[in-house]
Amino acid sequence: MIEPWVVLAAFCLYFGLLFWGALWVERRAANGWSPVNNPVVYSLALGVYCTAWTYYGSVGKAASSGVLFLPIYLGPTIGILLWWTVLRKLVRLKNIHRITSIADFISARYNKSQAVAAIAVVIAMVGLMPYIALQLKAIISTFLLITGQSSGGVVRSGAPGGLGPGSYVGPLVVALMIASTIMLGVRRLDPTERHDGMMAALAIESVVKLAAFLVVGIFVTYFMYDGFSDMWERVAASEQTNPVSGGIGPAPYAEWASYLAVSVWAILFLPRQFHVAVVENSDEKHILTAMWLLPLHMLLINVFVLPIAMGGLAGGFSRETADAFVLLIPLQYGKDWLALLVFIGGVSAAGGMIMVSSITLATMMTNHLLLPVVDSQPRLAILKRNLLRCRWAAVAGLILVGYWFEERIIRDEMLVNIGLISFTAVLQFAPPILGGLFWRKGNESGAILGLCGGFFVWCYTQLLPSFIRNGWLSPGLLKDGPFGWELLKPEALFGLAGLDPITHTVVWTMLFNVSLYVLGSLYFPQDEEEQSIAEQFVGVLASCGRHVYAPHHEGDAYIDLVARTEELRRLLCQYFPEGKAESLLDKCLEDAGVKGARRISILQLVELQGEVEKFLAGSIGAPAAYKAVHQSVKLTSRESRDLAEVYAEVLADLKVTPSELKQKIDYYQERELLLVHQANELEGKVGELEREVAERRRVQAALRESEGRFRGLVEAMNEGLAVEDANGVIIYVNDRLCDMWGCPRDEIIGRSVTEFVDEAQRQTLEGWMCGKRSLETAMYEVVWTGRSGNIISTLVSTVPLLDTEGKPTGGSFSVITDISQLKTHMREKANLVSMFAHDMRSSLTGIHGLGLRLLTKSSSMDEQKKEEYLRIINKEASKLESLVDDFLEFSRLETGRLKLSFRAVSLDRELLELFEFYQPRALQKGLRLEIQIGETLPIIEADVNRLRRVFTNLLDNALKFSKEEGVVRIVVEETATDLVVKIVDEGIGIDPEDIPFIFDIFHRTRGSEKREGYGIGLATVKAIVEGHGGRVRVDSELGRGSTFSVYLPKVKPGSSCVLE
Amino acid sequence: MKKLKSLFRQTEFHALIFCIALGLLNWPFLGALRSRRLEVVALCLFLFWLVLIILLLLISRCIEEDDRGCSGESRKDKT
User: What is the ipTM of this complex?
Assistant: First the structure.
């Protein structure tokens, strides 16, 4: 058992979620896109046919009568075979007449008769009350059962004579149902009476109840038993668990056939089914999906009915409690979660039915019972303005009466039996509706007689016995008939005994209903308007729905539109708030094409009346709207005469008989219908296209953004990029390639890449292009000739362009990297290595020759000569050592193995030592060496030996390239962050073209005529200074001298420096 | 196949199946199941139901296809 508060919380949470979902759907629908406007939701919402009666009652029926529960679902499946004709007609007529309920439909067919509508409403109310009571009974009983306040079967919501433990459940369920029904279905007055939120809620409920039932069915079949085969075998072995011996049961045919016949039409003519299938239909094509999805839903929900029934009986429960087996079995096995799921499924099944039935009944009651009374009693006119509140009251009243019915009348009846009482009641709608759709002669009188006759017999044979069984009337009435007339016994009318009560009622009600309908229709003549309506209803699939003939002959515009508009405004204000009435009137004026006019013709007035009537019919029903409009806007004698004259004139002009005219009108109306149908389809397609266009725009914007990013990337590349089409024509190049080739983009696009190379290169390119259809990426070197004739060595990497399927298109894109400098570098490196080898060889040859001479001729050689030879050998060895040092340095730079050992130093001592060391050399070359240094220099972290090499290199260069009598200065400055050492000379300077590459390894300046050295010195300077976290820069002017500035950070970040 | 689709679209065919189904689910055909075991009766009825649903699916698909075809033709005519 589960705690009551847990069940209550689940109950409230579920309804809260449903309401939230419905609100979400309504908001979406208000924004122009309704999620429920699709066939699956429509089909699932139609599953409201499966109520608590199905959910709990089918198992009860199966436990007592075997497969006799099946015709209730097989009948609708058979009836659905006719839906493409019958339901389509109903939907089309609903759209034409703005039908809001089943009573409205019957009334619209039979001359917009208020009497017919009122009778239909009374039948629906009386007939459905037991059904609503049944749903309340199911919710209340299962609540008590799951919370352990009842032991199963037919349970009561309160102990007799006092407040039992579950006494609050009934009122609570009623209050919740009233609140949810008003919030989901009657929150506002809608001229179309369509409720997207409610449809969404119904669809969700259908899924939930189906899922819950399937879960419990699987539990019984596969956990209690070992599948279907095992179940049948064990049932066969136990007579007690076999619901019905011998299959269908005793004398089943009449009962079976009547269940089948009743349910064929109940699926469509139960007011809630009519509402969901017809009134809520937004597209005729949705019927096609519902035709197979709804029967499939019914089949699935019935697959496990027999297993559950047998599982319950096998579990030791009595047949009297069979209605509750679905819940009792999980409780017996201690599966509380499953029991709660079953309860929620049951609430879905019952709640959906209560909600839709009370909405439709409330609409019918206010439109066809209340409004005619209000119209006849001027004192009640205020109710017209409060139509919505009247509907709320009607909803509350209906559910409260249903609760009363549940408490006082139905008591111990089984669920299925209660449901069938309602089915037989709504069967009375079948003759007037089907006759109205397919028989032209069916008329108002016949419909009234048939409905009254059928309903009276139903009350006598079905309702009266229920009252007698509840002790309200004498049991003798049932046993002996009224006044002792046995022929009038309610359950054996005219001596027809031996039939079950349902079959008995079906036979007699249909006999009376159909006979009176046919006889009445044949006996009483139809008037012309009724004939016209009948023609339209019968031929609606072939002809258009507009029943007001509107020829294009305008007539004189003499009617004061302002006065007529005022009359119509007063009429609308009786039913709607002023603002709403005003907007509706504006819409009608616009639709009638008279907005802004001062005077209108008689035909325009008729058109305007028709528009107002259509809008009004959506809220108060067709008969009330017709009556209200024709009472409020009365034609003057001149207007009536003119209208008649216009019609006569039209007939005369056309030179046709009235019947021929009718045929022609039908033809044009049919065309109009087709056009409207096509227009609706086109509107749908346009909507789809608009959505598609919006999606494409979004994708295009994303593509543009992505393309922008890639274009930016491509333009920022240091490599050139060219895209060629299948013919080898360039279709795109980036700025870098334009710079590389020295051509503007316009001159490159449209030309072939082969035009930018010489003959030899052209062959290479063409060779590759011939094979570029392959998927391989190619890489090759190409030398281009720039516009100014300059030669550019490049490395080209070409990738074929692929289509969306990954196949080569014939085009390609190429990334072109300028390797001219690299080539030069490589060449110079090769030259230097050659020079190095040559220099080494010269020195080694000298050392080798002199050494050999000393060895072989030392005895004949004087000391002075020997000393001279040894000095030369020493000099050449020093030269070799210097060469080897240079190349070791180069090797370290190349391999990144240049290691620095830092310590805190002050450079003043080192610089002064260097100054002293270079002073003699400078004087020897006729130069003046100066130093400008502060008193105290800041402490820096440095590798002194390496820094000495930096300054040595710079001073060597300064002395080497200075002119005679020039000045070389060592200048030491200080900035906020750095110590700056500048070596300034007045030498030959550096060519500006060399400056960017001056610190590159192996680079030797062109100004250096002799081109001495290997181009390693300055590269070493740069590497060492950068290794100290500093930088080096050069400022130079050709012929005026150069300044090399070494910036060294004062303190290496993060270190604490102590001077050694 | 085209003829079969055309047959499935006709109202008269729907009415015929309606009558046949109603007839098959009544006496005397149902009497043939009277002496059978409950599981056999249930299986037969569910199979019959499934066949009806498949038939309904085929009918709705044929009508839908025809409807689409008509819309396509009318658009073609306009262009």
Answer: 0.91
